[in-house]
Amino acid sequence: MKARNRLFLIVPALLLLMLLAALPAAAQSSASSVGLGVAVGLAFPQGDTPGITSTDWRTSFNWGFYVNIPIISTLHLTPSSELYRFEGTNATDFSLAFKFIIPLPRFDLYVGLVPGLTAFQDLLAPNVGILAGGSFRLVGNLDLFVQGKYDWIFESGDNLRVLHVNTGILFLF
Question: Among 107, 115, 140, 144, fewest CB within 10 Å belongs to which?
């Protein structure tokens, strides 16, 4: 039980440190640009359902791609797809994030709601999640982001939870 509580403290602290360590001097200007991105990270599944077996908190490599679509400067829609594994079997999340942007002088912070679907073997299950992260300009039209997302996957009256920790790049048009 203590190890899980430490994980919930360590992961957000690491995300914040990674973001603060690489802050650029230029202000973030991605609020009006559509972008295409790719991300890599780790997934930590927890719990079981009748159709999805999981070993609690066993780490899985996680990767995905997404499109960032600014609606207004403080609201972005982000359709995405993430691939990871449960007990050696591939799983894919298809999501549409509603990201609320907090623009700051040197970087942007964001929080959001993430509804979607999880495909696992012959199963297609709804999921919903929350996310938080930050992004900043690396060079020209290339941004770097760090984000954490916590999903609940619903299947046969039960639910499974997955913590995703990602970092990635975003190419802005």
Answer: 140
Cα separation of 137 and 105, whole Å?
11
pLDDT of residue 119: 94
CA–CA distance, 65 with 32 (Å, rounded to integer): 20
Neighbours of 5 (CB within 10 A): 9
Which domain range does residue 142 map to? 2-172
Phi, psi (deg, nearest 5) at residue 128: -145, 145
pLDDT digits (tens, 9 = 90+) for 32-87: 789 999 999 999 988 877 777 766 778 899 999 999 999 999 999 999 999 998 87
- CATH number assigned to the domain comprising residue 146: 2.40.160.20
Per the CB < 8 A criterion, the answer to whether 71 and 77 are in contact is yes
pTM exceeds 0.85, yes or no: no
Q: Output the DSSP codes for 69-137.
A: EEEETTEEEEEEEEEEEETTEEEEEEEEEEEEEEE-SS-EEEEEEEEEEEEETTEEEEEEEEEEEEEEE
CA 46 remoteness from chain centre: 16
Residues facing 86 on adjacent strands = 89
